[in-house]
Amino acid sequence: MKNLLLNIKGVRFAAVAAGIKQEQHFSENSSSKSLKKLDLSLISFIEGTTTAAVFTQNVFCAAPVLVAKNHLQNQPKALIINSGNANAGTGVGSGSVGLKNAYAVCQLAADTLGIKATQVLPFSTGVIGQPLPMSCFEDNIKQLVSLLSADKLPEVARAIMTTDLAEKTIFKQFKVANKTVTITGIAKGSGMIRPDMATMLSFIFTDILAHQSELQKCLTQAVNQSFNRITVDGDTSTNDACTLSATGTSGVNIDDCVDKFQQALNEVTKDLAHKIIKDGEGATKFVEICVRGGVSNEACLEVAYTVAHSPLVKTALFASDANWGRILAAVGRANIKHLKAHEVDIYLGSVCLVKQGEKAADYLESQGMREMAKDKIKISIKIGNHATEESVWTTDLSLDYIKINAAYRT
Amino acid sequence: MKNLLLNIKGVRFAAVAAGIKQEQHFSENSSSKSLKKLDLSLISFIEGTTTAAVFTQNVFCAAPVLVAKNHLQNQPKALIINSGNANAGTGVGSGSVGLKNAYAVCQLAADTLGIKATQVLPFSTGVIGQPLPMSCFEDNIKQLVSLLSADKLPEVARAIMTTDLAEKTIFKQFKVANKTVTITGIAKGSGMIRPDMATMLSFIFTDILAHQSELQKCLTQAVNQSFNRITVDGDTSTNDACTLSATGTSGVNIDDCVDKFQQALNEVTKDLAHKIIKDGEGATKFVEICVRGGVSNEACLEVAYTVAHSPLVKTALFASDANWGRILAAVGRANIKHLKAHEVDIYLGSVCLVKQGEKAADYLESQGMREMAKDKIKISIKIGNHATEESVWTTDLSLDYIKINAAYRT
Predict the structure, then answer these.
(1) Do the strands B11-16 and A40-45 form a parallel or antiparallel pair, or are they unpaired?
(2) CB-based contact B59 A331, cutoff 8 Å
(3) Which of A25, A199, A207, B313 has a CA between 20 and 30 Å from the CA of residue B392?
(4) Taking CB atoms and an 8 Å limit, are B402 and A407 in contact across chains?
(5) Reduced to 3 states, what is the DSSP secondary structure of residue A339?
(6) Facing residue for A235 by CB, picked from B330, B358, B402
(7) What is d(CA A154, CA A6) in angstroms, rounded to the nearest whole number?
(8) What residues form DSSP beta bridges with A230?
(9) DSSP per residue over B220-255, as a string?
(10) Order of strands, edge to edge, in the sheet holding B389-394?
């Protein structure tokens, strides 16, 4: 059941073990290093498929991100994705090895598929600072193309993993008149980020009929409510990307069901985002921080992120310690205007810790401790009386986080 | 030599063990719990002394901070400081126990000294959420006043400590014509913040003659370059405060030497700030992050803080791992405009890791590792060609940080 995924007519998938992970001496928690792991994927689209995408905002984005951004306007016909090497920190200037290799990967796929290189989007994730091992691509591209089939998405979900402990897949369906629309998505990314492999990648497919501009609007909204609301340590990667491709093969036009589609897409991206948080190495808690009542949604978000990134709050979560003072202090230093102490209430689950800026009169430590002992924790913070609300999802900060991130590369 | 401090004519000090720490079951790394620790201090000023102060920006500032802010305008004649209980989270509304106790402490000191309560500034540091044990103050105020003497500042330096491992003291002198001006300062605060005792307090004294407004200007500038530039985990306390009191007893007017005074004061506050970082529990490195060339000093600071707060950079520092990719990624996600990847250079000590946004051609990992192995590390980042520069000081993120902050209170 784990990898149950519905096919999307018009999309074919393939994944092979090309040796990129071995080439990079990429040490996973694998029992056998000699066993080659899936690390190179190809996805090909039927004619007429439209694709939208969002990319990392990091100024130092990697070469494949630049190329994918550049090729997005050409109605892409294929995605090629490798894990084990991020092709990041390898140069993005014209003539740099990073950019040359990213283009070369597109050319290889295009030549074998019989399309143009500008119709291929490249994605890479893995170690940074090392050139892509091009022979791994050259030696395997023919086999990859020959393996393309409609039911191989689960293999791609596995092939894009780096430090992930589990594949992340989801599908949703809804009906319009008598027709069914399907959305299927996969993602990779590890909540508790390992340094150079922090990349979040997600690829989503649907059989709805949509113009690229409509798709882009829906994807941007969905990502803002999901992948852009999960945070582990505030660090963002050079390679993050999410695509949404629509084949039109369901015969349903997005104009007839845009709200339904948006809702289903939101559920898909939120589910994948939560799976990334839950897969966090070192993470022992899944934490929602919901802030409402600020003068703007931005104000709510700023408070939510300040609490989510507070190492003191995060270590309290790790220790299952209902330390309301740490939460209150984090709220108090959030960089927003118009925060009034006496308008702040804080809840842990349904337990009120802080009322009007002070410890709630009837709060008992035992109540807080009971909430904190749970694996799934919701911190609700009211900062005013406006009709605004934002949630972010995060993890605790554990000893394993330090161990993983300090041990890696040394 | 440890506590060598020069007296300031016109300032008298006293400290006693009032039982506030015991009262709060404040568990320090003391071998004997039965031994009472110094925890209540009084500082009294000669007539005509002017005092400037800066306070925490946290919206949830504690009751004593509110009272001190309120009394600052009345040319304070005394400071009363307790450790062991922060009188924070105890209410700041009129009628709240927190505010009532803060005022009561001032009244006690005033009655015994024969001054007005509005001429006393109160300061508290320690556990939060518990009312001040007022009997400890009442029972000891007479003895405290009777002990006042010019040479007891070292005892006050010890009495204001909470989780600090060492007293933090410094003095500077400079000459104007044939006269000597002295600045003497003490501070408390533990770089690797223990949750409810994160408070930074600093008290500085000088025998220069200065109006309050001049003092305030000098103090604000000095604090901005020192205490406001140290960061451990981005969390700020509800009780932070720093005062500067000038007796005028040197006979030197600040108008005749304002630059010299500012420079000496900057050295005093920077030295105390660095001592706080070095005393960080769990900290194994002292790290300077210097950013220059941004379109503004604010832009430089934003980049410096983003790097300083990056858990991935901080764990790399803990692991002595010259992981330039993590530094580069943190710079790239800093919330500033106009950052161009090809204008970014990164140095570790004198070793160039990144040149024009890419790994420096002649960089060898062994060079970086050698720099990272040091206890004192300087990361220099160039982000453009403007004549701007800002530094912040921080620590690494260690296993002990998690252990200390997770274990505390549980």
Answers:
(1) unpaired
(2) yes
(3) A199
(4) no
(5) coil
(6) B330
(7) 10
(8) A393
(9) HHHHHTTGGGB-SSS---SS-EEEEEE--TT--BGG
(10) B358-359, B351-355, B345-348, B376-382, B286-292, B389-394
Domains of chain B with bracketed CATH? 11-278 (3.60.70.12), 286-394 (3.10.20.340)
| Interface check B85 vs A, CB under 8 A | no
SS3 A34: coil
Cβ neighbour number for residue A298 with a 10 Å cutoff: 12
Nearest CA to A203 among A227, A186, A222?
Answer: A186
CA distances from B375 to B285, B315, B317, B344 (A): 5, 14, 10, 25
User: Are B410 and A238 within 8 A, CB to CB?
Assistant: no
Of A91, A233, A329, the CB nearest to B311: A233
- Rounded to a whole number of angstroms, the distance between the first and last alpha carbons of chain B is 39
Q: Which residue blocks in A119-257 are alpha helix, DSSP H?
A: 134-147, 153-159, 212-224
Residue B315 neighbours by CB under 8 Å, 6+ apart: A401, A402, A405, A406, B396, B397
Partner B contacted by A400 (CB < 8 A): no
Backbone angles phi, psi at A292, to 5 degrees: -135, 160
Chain B stretch 246-305, residues whose beta carbon is closer than 8 A to a beta carbon of chain A: none
> Distance between CA atoms of A241 and B298, rounded to whole angstroms?
30
Contacts of A75 (CB under 8 A, 6+ apart): A49, A50, A51, A119, A212
Asked if residues A358 and B60 have their Cβ atoms less than 8 Å apart, the reply is: no
B205-B208-B211 Cα angle (round to 5): 95
Tokens linked to A403: 């161990």
Name the residue among B38, B136, B119, B125 with its Cα closest to residue B78. B119
- How far apart are the CA of A122 and the nearest CA of chain B, in angstroms? 20
Half-sphere exposure of B92 (CA within 13 A, CB side): 23
Query: Closest partner residue to B129 among A60, A235, A359, by Cβ?
Result: A359
Is B322 in a helix, a strand, or coil?
A: coil
Sign of CA dihedral A81, A83, A89, A95: negative
B143 touches chain A (CB under 8 A): no
User: What's the pLDDT tens digit per position in B361-374?
Assistant: 899 989 999 999 99
**Residue B93 at interface with chain A, using a CB cutoff of 8 Å:** yes
Shortest distance, CA B388 to any CA of chain A (angstroms): 21
Residue-level pLDDT, tens digit, chain A, 410 residues = 344 678 999 999 999 999 998 754 444 444 444 457 999 999 999 999 999 999 988 888 889 999 999 999 999 999 999 999 999 888 777 788 999 999 999 999 999 999 999 999 999 998 877 899 999 999 999 999 999 999 999 999 999 998 888 899 999 999 999 999 999 999 998 755 544 445 789 999 999 999 999 999 999 999 988 888 887 665 667 788 999 999 999 999 999 999 999 999 999 999 999 998 888 767 788 999 999 999 999 999 999 998 988 888 888 888 888 888 889 888 988 888 889 888 999 999 999 999 998 889 899 989 999 999 999 999 999 999 999 999 999 888 877 777 776 765 43
The answer to whether A33 contacts chain B (CB < 8 Å) is: no
Quickly tell me which residue has 């050409």 as its tokens.
A74
- CA B190 distance to own-chain centroid: 9
A343–chain B nearest CA distance, Å: 11
Amino acid at B122: P
- 8 Å CB contact of B342 and A93: yes
Kindly report the backbone phi and psi dihedral angles of residue A56, in degrees, each rounded to the nearest multiple of 5, phi listed first. Answer: -55, 145
Contact of B316 with chain A, judged by CB distance below 8 Å, is answered with yes
Helix locations, B225-296, DSSP H: 258-278
> CB-hemisphere CA count at 13 Å for A404?
24
Handedness of CA B188, B189, B194, B198 (dihedral sign): positive
The CB density around residue B407, as the number of other CB atoms within 10 Å, is 12
Crossing angle, helix B97-113 and helix B134-147, to 10 degrees?
20
Report CA torsion sign: B70, B72, B75, B76.
positive
